[in-house]
Design a protein that fits this description.
The chain is α+β, with helices and mostly antiparallel strands. It is 31% helix and 23% strand. The strands form 3 sheets. Strands 1-10-5-8 form a 4-stranded antiparallel beta sheet. The protein has helices at residues 13-29, 37-41, 89-92, 162-171, 173-197, 205-214, and strands spanning 45-49, 54-57, 61-65, 70-73, 93-99, 102-108, 122-129, 134-135, 147-151, 155-161.
Length: 232
């Protein structure tokens, strides 16, 4: 859910060049044909962002009043899961950072039923998204960690409707794999921040990224013993 941003087709040469440059960077990471850059850019809209702008909200909570402990719910998300509600803006668009930085803020404070625990609600910095990286409609790729994406600087952001992106991903499977990988990585970073390090402010976002690179995910079936006691 982008709040207060005015998106439009790139109207000037600098705008088009900025958008094409970020798309080319994304295609390069995915090892796709750069000749597709201009045609893909035609499906994007761009908007300036300013420090503090909310670019995506997958939390289901719009504001936290720490003094009074009041939390207002927004219709764009389901507060039980953090997933976007049907028809909301955050469910329809993928966003691409063109210039500047975006901070991913993870939220902790969930009870055993998976519902928000308002008494312990906290917001933590889990990741900084740089120019050339995308975020937004992560539910499509099997991720479900709630977060907010907030502009960490002035800059520019572009968006593409999921209905337009979906056929492109079928033609560019390597781009699809890249976006899926980045979505899963964002989920892992949010998990590390909220479930492992929590209030440890000494752990910066880039340190979480370095730590994640040292970890190897292992799939286990339900009921599998993870560790056994060792006899001395």
């Amino acid at each position: 859910m982008t709040q207060g941003l005015s998106f439009q087709k790139p109207a000037t040469a600098p705008d088009r060049q900025l958008c094409a440059g970020a798309i080319a960077q994304l295609l390069t990471q995915a090892q796709c044909d750069l000749q597709l850059t201009d045609s893909i850019a035609q499906s994007f809209e761009v908007a300036p962002m300013t420090l503090g702008d909310i670019l995506a909200d997958r939390v289901g909570l719009d504001q936290v009043n720490v003094d009074q402990g009041n939390i207002g719910q927004v219709r764009s998300s389901d507060p039980r899961t953090g997933r976007a509600a049907s028809g909301s803006a955050s469910q329809e668009y993928i966003l691409l950072v063109l210039q500047g930085r975006v901070r991913v803020l993870a939220h902790a404070g969930v009870n055993h039923a998976g519902e928000p625990d308002f008494s312990s609600w906290r917001e933590y910095s889990a990741q900084v998204v740089e120019a050339g990286a995308a975020f937004g409609e992560l539910e499509q790729w099997g991720t479900d960690q709630p977060y907010r994406a907030v502009a960490a600087s002035d800059g520019w952001v572009a968006r593409i409707a999921w209905s337009r992106l979906k056929p492109l991903l079928k033609q560019l499977p390597s781009l699809h794999r890249l976006l899926c990988r980045e979505a899963r990585q964002r989920d892992d970073l949010i998990f590390l921040r909220t479930q492992v390090f929590g209030d440890d402010r000494a752990i910066a976002s880039y340190q979480l990224q370095l730590l994640l690179g040292l970890l190897t995910p292992i799939e286990v079936e339900k009921g599998t013993a993870i560790a056994r006691p060792t006899r001395i």
